[in-house]
Every structure is written in C-alpha cells, then in structure tokens.
C-alpha cells in the first residue's frame, strides 16, 4: 500500500489561491480552491492504493474550515510550522520510517488523476523516487520509498528550479528515479487556461 498525502490550505476567500484574486476575485478564487481540493480527494479515493492523508493549514478546528466537506475515510493532520520543505519532510519521514511509501501532492493540478496516482505508486515498486514535474519548474507529485532530508532542505520553493534541483539531489543520493509526465499547476491568472470547463 502507498500513502497519498495531500497538502492543502483551507479554501476560504482571501486565504487560498490569492494570486488568482486579480482575475477571479476573492470568492471566485476560493471557489476554485474548493473545487481543486475536492478533485484531489476524489482522485486519491478513486486510485485506491492506500490511505489518504490530508495535511492542512490552518488546523481543522479553525473557522476557515467551516462548511468544507472532507468526506469519510480521510486522515486529517496539521501541516505544522516551517517552510514547505520542512512540512513535506516531516510528513514523508514519519510514514517512510514506518515502511510505508508515500506520494506527496498538493491541490493545484487539475490534470491530476487516479490513473496518474496509480502509475506513480507502481513506479515506486521499482524506483526509490518518482517525480511529476510541473511546467512552472516545480513538481506536482513527489513519490518516495526512501527518505533523506537533503531532498527538502535549502530548496528555493516557488522558483523555476525546484523540480530540476530535486532531480539532481535524487541522483546525487544514488537513488533510482522515475520521471512522470509534465503537468500544469494552476497558480496565477495565466494558468486558468488549464482549468477544466465548468470549474469556474
């Protein structure tokens, strides 16, 4: 079994998808964030490769989550403090230390699918790591069967070099790596062309 860990912000106006506010307004950006959260959860459920864990910010008792349906069978945990690298590392290390491979994803990719998640889980049976790069230079998915903090420390998160640098670090560790298809995140107004019809 492979654990799918989804990192998500509460889909509330002015809190999630703030870079889309100039194009969609606070409520429109929050509506899209909610739709993308539901899409990620649906893909994980359909993939049926193991437990789905939703690592959120702020914590689930915060008012930002009121009215957001998570659905049954989802383990909800708090992302905790630190930069993105620290939060990703904390999540991966805990599970891999228990012998459970992980797929780390966010909610920004409308092209994510159950089939892509199953492909990544299958790749981890043969590889130490798998990465699905994003067109903006980041990555949409990072799958790990091993853990090393080097993959997360000192990365310029949000830059165009995140995927490239992560791949280089995997190679320096001497790990085997599977590279999946290039996908698109929806972060800024220019990315709205990748939003499926009916989501806005």
CATH homologous superfamily classification: Spore Coat Polysaccharide Biosynthesis Protein SpsA, Chain A
Q: Uncertain runs with pLDDT below 50, 5 residues or more?
A: none
Quote the beta fraction.
15-25%
Biggest sheet features? 7 strands, mixed
Per CATH, the class reads: Alpha Beta
Name of the CATH architecture: Alpha-Beta Complex
The separation of the N and C termini measures: 35 Å
Individual helix count: 4
What does this structure look like?
- By secondary structure, the protein is an alpha/beta fold.
- The chain has one domain (3-186): Spore Coat Polysaccharide Biosynthesis Protein SpsA, Chain A.
- Helix content is 30%, strand content 18%.
- The protein has four helices and seven strands, in the order E-H-E-E-H-E-H-E-E-H-E.
- Helix 1 (21-47) packs across helix 3 (114-123).
- The longest helix has 27 residues, at 21-47.
- It is globular, with a radius of gyration of 16 Å.
